[in-house]
Design goal:
By secondary structure, this protein is mostly helical. Helix content is 48%, strand content 4%. It has five helices and two strands, in the order ααβααβα. The protein is globular and about 30 Å long.
Length: 96
């Protein structure tokens, strides 16, 4: 889906995979898949492997892409993305 390093855009990705049109419950279900360690947060290492949750053989995000993605979703500055932050991030992608 996203082949080249440096090309990942979370807003375009969320739209392309149809996540922006889903209910809060469906978005939370996607969050739970990405939250591999079930900590209630998506940490930087889980973000790096984000695409692999959606596509078998998907590439890891580059360090720069991971940091940009984290920065976009981490509204409270704690270095990770909580479920409410993830839902808000997906919903903001819908309007753009």
């Amino acid at each position: 889906m996203i082949a080249d390093a440096g090309t990942f855009n979370y807003k375009k990705f969320f739209k392309a995979c149809g996540l922006t049109g889903k209910s809060d419950a469906d978005i939370q279900a996607a969050f739970n898949i990405i939250d591999q360690d079930n900590s209630g947060f998506i940490e930087e290492e889980e973000l790096k492997l984000f695409l692999q949750n959606f596509e078998k053989g998907g590439r890891a995000l580059s360090d720069a892409e991971t940091k940009d993605f984290l920065k976009a979703g981490d509204s409270d500055g704690d270095g990770k993305i909580g479920v409410a932050e993830f839902v808000a991030m997906v919903k903001t992608a819908k309007g753009n």
